[in-house]
Amino acid sequence: MSARYAGTTYESNDDTFIRLIGIIISIGAVISFAIVLFYFFTMDMYIAGPILYFVIVDAALIAAGLYLFLSGRANRNNILRFVSFAMVGLMLFINLFLWSYLDATKEIIAPTVTSSGAIEYSIVAQRTAGIQLSEKTEIRAGIQSTDAFKKEVERETSKLTAATFKEFNSISEIINATEIEKVEIAVVQSAMLNAFAEYFPESFDNLDILATFKAGTEKSQSAANDIKVDITKPFSIYVSGLDTDGDIHQTARSDSNMLILIDPEHYKMLLINTPRDYYVQLPGTRGYPDKLCHAGIYGIDMCEQTISELYGIDIDYHVQINFTTVSTFVESMGGIIVNNPRTFELWGQTYKEGEIWLNGDQALLFARARKGLEEGDLDRGKNQQLVIEGIVHRITSPDVVTHYKKLIRNLSGTFLSNVPSSVITQLFSRQIALGGSWTIEKMNAAGTPAQRPTYSMGSEDLSVIIPDYNSINEISMAINDFMRGK
Fold it and tell me: 22-38 as b/e, with b when 16 or more CB fall inside 10 Å?
């Protein structure tokens, strides 16, 4: 008799232990579910359709499992025990998985834009002069009269060498002054010097870079994450693509200037490309107009304001990317498909006519192609629109979730944006909840190639595109219609 009771006592202890484990796992599932819901609401996600169904099923399965363990019903037979553990264990795993994804997403889409930040400057001299800054007791330096940080540039230069300063209107005038020995050194923005190197390679090859420093105050501008945005209404994003790779915080020419209008309610996008060489007056400048790409040298705000004034639109948000962003983004998604309208070759790569698959590096080259295309910079803008269209189709496809973790991890630090995180999470969660395919329309600002002097480079003629104002007016009217939901 005592042996039978001893056996019964052992089984009861075993059941109690299993029940306790089940309750602990259930509580873990409840906590993880609560955290996921917290992320859903704080990220202002659109909870409907599949997302709403998931929330309901998640809550129901956890509640059922917890009830079975608390009531002891899970111990009545092995099948109920297995079902109870399966329910709470599965939801615990899924919720932890979602938690990690949502946490990574929230971190990367937090909008932080460096605006009017510290700018790198270079001190250069003619190579034949053999100048050593440390050996000079007094040196004549040329600087640009319109530089926003002129006083700070003078101060930082004086820390490196005893300098007296003479002002010039453009970098070309400053470099020319070193050639005819009006000044011994030139102090110019590094981004401006890089542009000068492309336009005037022979003059640049005669220069020595003696030192670099940074001037200007670093200002970090963050869009508030608690802003509630109604994304059922059309909104606009200006995308500036810098002609650099690596550090996204540096100033550089804006090689790509794409205005993207988005109407989530009607699943429509309008991509408006403005050629990099468009000959426009930069806001706040006088004298020569400039190439649009040069606006990037003065910062993202100058780029956005230039596009805003050109088309008469108040732009809602902006995003700044560079070569690294594009190649990383496309590669992390597993590549994209674009419908190439023509066959062309670039840097040993052949892009055939028709639908082609592009990996990250190929997509970058495709978007950068200009030489060899019939309309040069105008065709390049059309290629960039095709890449954006390919990205949109890829990122809205169901299987992109298999690349999501890699995408989030790799994109970190490769772009700057002032888009509120709620806009991004609402847009993507709405797509998941409601589905739907997007209609993407494209427009391109037209113009006539010419040679003109520019504000940034001075009186030397550069290749520009004179705007066709009939084209500008047509785009402006299309923008007004789109933003009114037509």
Answer: bbebbebbbebbebbee
Tell me the DSSP string of 81-98.
Answer: HHHHHHHHHHHHHHHHHH
Contact predicate 172/148, CB 8 Å: no
Of the candidates 185, 266, 268, 208, the one whose C-alpha atom is nearest the C-alpha of residue 441 is 268
- Would the pLDDT of 106 be above 60? yes
Q: Tell whether the torsion through CA atoms of 202, 207, 208 and 211 is positive or negative.
A: negative
Tell me how many degrees the CA angle 118-119-123 measures, rounded to the nearest 5. Answer: 135
HSE-CB of 418 using CA atoms within 13 angstroms: 18
Residue 45: CB partners within 8 Å, gap ≥ 6? 39, 51, 425, 426, 429
Report the C-alpha gap between 277 and 179 in whole angstroms: 28
Q: Are 327 and 364 in contact (CB under 8 A)?
A: yes
- Report the SS3 class of residue 221: strand
Q: Which residues contact 323 (CB under 8 A, 6 or more apart)?
A: 242, 243, 244, 245, 364, 368
The pairing of strands 235-242 and 254-263 is antiparallel
Instruction: Report the 10 Å Cβ neighbour count for 66.
Output: 21
Classify residue 403 by burial, with Cβ atoms within 10 Å: 0-12, 13-18, 19+.
middle
Q: Cα Rg for the chain, rounded, in angstroms?
A: 30
Q: Residue 13 — φ and ψ, nearest 5°?
A: -65, -40
Q: What is the pLDDT of residues 166-192, one digit of tens each?
A: 999 899 999 999 999 999 999 999 999
Task: End-to-end CA distance of the chain: give it in Å, rounded.
Answer: 87
Least confident of 26-30, 113-117, 366-370, 405-409: 113-117
How many CA atoms lie less than 13 Å away from 82 in the CB half-sphere? 3
pLDDT in tens, 310-359: 999 999 999 998 888 888 889 888 899 999 888 887 777 788 889 999 99
Report which secondary-structure segment, H or E, holds 345: strand 344-346
Q: What whole-number distance in Å separates Cα of residue 324 and Cα of residue 371?
A: 21
pTM for this prediction: 0.80
Q: How many residues does the chain have?
A: 486
pLDDT band with cut points at 50, 70 and 90 for residue 7: very low
